[in-house]
Write a structure and sequence with these properties.
Length: 199
């Protein structure tokens, strides 16, 4: 491996890294990087190391490889905090619930501004009717047979018949959103679709 041609002083750079880690001895830094102490000693004496090792140091110490090669830009990489997978799962669920609630409130506000401020239950029904309107059109265009629609949307035939009959009272908003997701549609498009078909 050829030595890395760099704008930085290799020995000074390595001394800085050792100091920043709070190490007194070179073998401590070598142990952290998983390399023999003799290898690190060679780097310090020669003041250089290979590009492959520069990449390793960059990843281990969070130092920009561009800075190591050119001494331009920021020395330290910008890091983002990682979120544990179980926390991320909880957070995603919370965000989905929050988005759903916010969307319902937005739709309610839209209905209230366009009419004489109906009660909350009325705006919820409007939301369900908007979704049913989209699902009706989706089924008519893509699954003209009830059995096909049942299979495509993974719902019982009875449910498909309720959709086709616009029986909004048979559904909760959550259940319709689930069917809407299965159809590949979006709540935003459903609302726009309802508005475009409203005389």
């Amino acid at each position: 491996m050829r030595a890395l041609s760099s704008e930085i002083d290799g020995k000074e750079f390595l001394c800085t890294i050792k100091k920043e880690n709070g190490f007194k001895f070179w073998n401590q830094l070598a142990n952290k990087w998983g390399i023999p102490a003799s290898t690190l000693s060679t780097w310090v004496k020669s003041g250089s190391f290979s590009l492959e090792n520069a990449i390793m140091i960059s990843e281990q110490e969070g130092i920009s490889l561009e800075w190591m090669l050119t001494k331009k830009g920021k020395m330290r990489k910008e890091t983002r905090p990682t979120i544990p997978s179980d926390t991320m799962s909880d957070l995603t669920g919370y965000m989905n619930d929050t988005i759903r609630e916010a969307t319902e409130k937005l739709f309610e506000a839209h209905v209230n501004s366009a009419s004489s401020a109906p009660p909350v239950s009325a705006s919820t029904n409007e939301l369900k009717k908007a979704i049913l309107g989209y699902l009706n059109e989706h089924i008519a265009l893509n699954h003209p047979l009830v059995l096909d629609a049942s299979e495509a949307l993974n719902r019982p035939v009875t449910t498909i018949n309720w959709i086709l009959a616009n029986k909004h009272e048979r559904f909760s908003v959550d259940s319709l959103l689930s069917i809407l997701e299965a159809s590949g549609g979006s709540l935003e498009y459903s609302i726009m679709h309802k508005e475009s078909n409203t005389p």
